[in-house]
Amino acid sequence: MRPARVLFVLVPKLHLLDLAGPAQVFSTANDLGYGYEVSYVAESDEVMTAQGVPLRTQVAWPELEPGDLVLVPGWRSPRLSPEPPIGPAIRQRLRDHHASGGTVASVCSGADALGWAGLLDGRRFTTHHDLTDELADRYPRATIVRDVLYVEDDRVITSAGIASGIDLALHLVAIDHGALAAARVAREMVVYARRNGDELQESAMLRHRGHLNDLAHRVQDVIDTQYADRLPLAELAGRIGVSERTLTRIFTTATGLTPLRYQQLLRLERAEHLIGHGATIESAARTVGFEDARMLRRLRSRTPVQT
Fold this sequence. Notes:
With 307 residues, the protein is of the alpha/beta class. It has helices at 16-31, 88-99, 110-116, 132-138, 164-177, 179-189, 204-207, 214-225, 233-240, 244-255, 259-276, 281-288, 293-301; strands spanning 4-9, 36-41, 46-48, 54-56, 69-72, 103-107, 124-125, 143-144, 150-153, 156-159. It folds into 2 domains: 4-181, Rossmann fold (3-Layer(aba) Sandwich), CATH 3.40.50.880; 211-301, Arc Repressor Mutant, subunit A. The strands form 3 sheets. The chain has a 6-stranded mixed beta sheet, sandwiched between helices. A two-stranded antiparallel ribbon has the order 3-4. This is Transcriptional regulator GlxA family with amidase domain. InterPro entries: Class_I_gatase-like, DJ-1/PfpI, Homeodomain-like_sf, HTH_AraC, INH-QAR.
């Protein structure tokens, strides 16, 4: 299979970070082997950014498939123009891609471009806090969601602005390749692996990756990939090259959990997924590494799960 394409649609006076943040996420993910191809189009072959850096790009659109993503970064907009930020041809391209099963997304004022394309109507969306009232008035058939990082509704994904494009992109990597992939990309970029859009945080892999301690991340990498195996503390400490006491202290300080408790949470999450798809408690317990179902039943009885 060819890599999934991420196509950025560049608008004059775009904010560099609106573009560079998510572009770096997908580029880093590709470097780590997750298969993304990043490309850029605009209505002219040169676009001036709000920060004064000119960008060279392409006018011709590549062939897109349903698995591809089209993303519109935001632009400098204290007030939105009464005129559409993109022409009719690009608006039609956005509509066609979504209609064919593709995903479209925006950062900050990029939501206005999706609105002009008719893709916000009947859907929930978000944008930068300075623009929420204006866009709510402009698109009364859509529902604005305030004070969140991003909103996903029927393959139309909007984010709040500027750095939230990174959170949006990490979320999409997690959807495509799993929470561990998003955590690896975030660690490589030295950013927090946040996934807090308008939904509750669901993944322990990401929920406990919001730190910058390299040793703890290395231990998590081991546990994330081998959570179903028996991982004695002495073995983990030996892999990292520290004492068991040091490992426990550093890991607990960084994540709020002991290594064993973190592994149990990963096992519990996977077991709940299996049970939700028809597995028995006994088979789910064996699959995730418990010798029998008693420990799984005890963990499931904690409501909510204590972390």
